Amino acid sequence: MLRQSLSKICRKTKLQRLGCCFSNYAQKNPAMKFDDEFRTTINQEGKLLPNSDHSFIADHDDKFGLQHIRDPAKILTHLKSVEFKYSLNDLIYFLRHLVHISEEHGLRSQIMNNYNFREFLNHIKKCLLTNQHDKFPLIGSYAYCLNKLDINDREMWRLLEYKILEDQYHTTFDESVFAAQGFCKLPLMYYGQSEETIQARIDKVYKKLERVIRITIWEVNPVHYHSIAMALAKVNRFDPQMFAKLEQHILTNLSLNYTTKMMIDILFCFAKGKQGSLEFYDSMQYVIFKGHMFNRNYFLQSLSELSYDGHLVARLLGIYKEAQDKYHEFQLHPDFQSKVHNLMVNKLTFYDLESLVTTMTLLPTFLKDDVKNIQNSLINRITQIPGQFQIQDIIKFYEFVEKNYDDIKNAPIQQMHFVEDNLYKYSDSVSMDDLIIVLQYLYERPKFILQPDKFINQVIKTFDQNINLMTAAQIDMLTSLFQPFLEFQQKQIGDSLNIKSTLKKLKDIQLIKQYYQKYLHQLYNYGYKIAQIQFYQCHLTIIKMKKKFIIISLEGNIGAGKSTLFEILKEEYPQAIFLMEPLEQWQKINGNSNLNILEKYYSDARQVGVYFLNLRLLIQINGLGQIIAIVLVFTERSIESARELFFQLCCNDGKISQIEFEIYEEFYQWLMNHYQQYLIDCVIYVNTPPEVCLERLIKRGRSEEACVPLDYLRKLHQRHEDWLSEKSNRFLTIKIDATLNYVQDQKVKESVRQLLLSEIQKLKELLN
């Protein structure tokens, strides 16, 4: 009672003093009126914001009084209006606040889609590239903020990396910790290179940062310890001196207000790098089962128990397995074992398949008694796990069953059925690579295939849906792997599961492969990987057939207005099929947002031109190959225009090598000779001046098109004119003047509509 009364008096006195100080400060310091000044100034275009330079603002890291602004567009519009004329070290205040808005209010997409934000990033890159910055720029803060916003601009990150390597950054403790957290993004920026090369680049940067962190005085703050440990573990940096210093600070400051989860995260980083002393692991046991080493300290906030999280259980078991492997004399404390055991078997503890299998696998290293009963209890939870299982977790589950159950009759059949059903149920959302891996894994272990009919159907489905995207290596593996299996099953159950059809497709693949076999040796000599050659990967959708549909292609420059015209056609022909260009597929190859081939094509056609054109060809054939009814088909660009326009432009500009040219040409001619059902019957040419196209590109603000110059649009426009004026063309051409406003002007729209209806009707009568 005495303590509570004393505490209330202290708090009351402290608040009164703070109120007096705050009141006096407001009277003496004009910074208190700064927010009103800011709201007035930010609406005045072209005027820089005032710099308070008062301690009240500085203490809140808000040099320009941004704390009340919740709309990122206001900040970005202001920066654009003053042409980003702040110093680079001042611009970081705006970027930090954008990060704050993104995290607190979930407005990241609004920020990323703002054209002024892209301009902001380009200005930052320009400053870094031309050294238009302070002597010691805040590179750490920039790396931290850009990582938080998930910016994957390789040029930006390489410029930041260069500044670190050249010691052109603010070498304080805080900035170095920010940099360590931010540069965790670096491995993604070198995606596609060998692991050794990527790690070597990471090591160069982090050696610089770690040196600064080691020799500077550390603030006594568990959050810093946590940030440093997590950042280093993410990039596989486990310098013994750095972790020894971390351990020293942690063990000597266990009276601080840390959370148990924070300490477990730090402990995991130590275990991952095989760092830490016996005393450290022993002390952490007490931290975990007590909740806090000094939890009787009245002034520390109360700490919650460990969360009911299966990943937490699995992580603890993994940590202390490493501790026992490293220190054979290490002993687990009974209270610690009891706490983890209770958490492990508690019905409230939620497991997914990964954490459940990991826990069951590591259990014998943590407990010696009743292991089998606990494992059986845990494995029964599998049928309660909702949602889709990851492929790697499914394989780990089967590995656990294989290791722990010699006789399949004693295995958990119900749980195995559940896992197998989950695989087939969610197969459409699994990447092709992962699906092939797990099918191969099961094929090699037939005792795990409890439902052979579903397995065969899944094999057939995998071929039918993914064959167009498979690499040569995957085709080789699948044909050699599954053809004997399917032939065997055909003898057993006949053709009821379309096995015969799948076998025919497999043989067709082998034939088309032989056609290209003569080129493979040449391509090897030029340093290509077979997996990158997509010429014969599209074969399964190329099935010889009589012409059953009319193909009308909308052609025009980038930004000509093709999509708008598509909407008019959709209104008139609701039964037709419309094949739009797959922007999202180009922007995310195999679902990976870091692999944007469209952006790369516009910025560096010399490097990826032929691959982009092959991908375009592949997707167009795939779309047409799915059409089996007698229909009218509208496509956004065509197989012919891909060659006549983009391929020819790359050739004219010297961005395609001779061997690439010859192979593409021969394949194109072979395709046109053998599969004439894919030739276009009509072109609707959306004729738009290049200058108008450029205005539209700027207005719609796609990041990939930001680097498209007017000169390129002029060349592409001329290629359209040359191609469509050739007398040898066997298709009808309908020219639409896109400078006319057929979006808002109803008379113009009706005129365009009547022209299209009339010409398309003539075409249908002619072809019929």
For the record, the CATH architecture of the domain at 546-767 stands as 3-Layer(aba) Sandwich
| CATH fourth-tier homologous superfamily of the domain at 546-767 | P-loop containing nucleotide triphosphate hydrolases
CATH level 3 topology of the domain at 546-767: Rossmann fold
End-to-end C-alpha gap: 98 Å
**Rg for CA atoms:** 32 Å
The overall strand count is 5
Taking the sheet with the most strands, its summary is: 5 strands, parallel
Overall morphology: globular
Spatial arrangement of strands, main beta sheet: 2-3-1-4-5
Q: Work out the strand percent.
A: under 5%
* Mean of pLDDT: 77
Q: What is the CATH C-level name of the domain at 546-767?
A: Alpha Beta
Task: Give a concise summary.
62% of the residues lie in helices and 4% in strands. The protein is mainly α and 768 residues long.
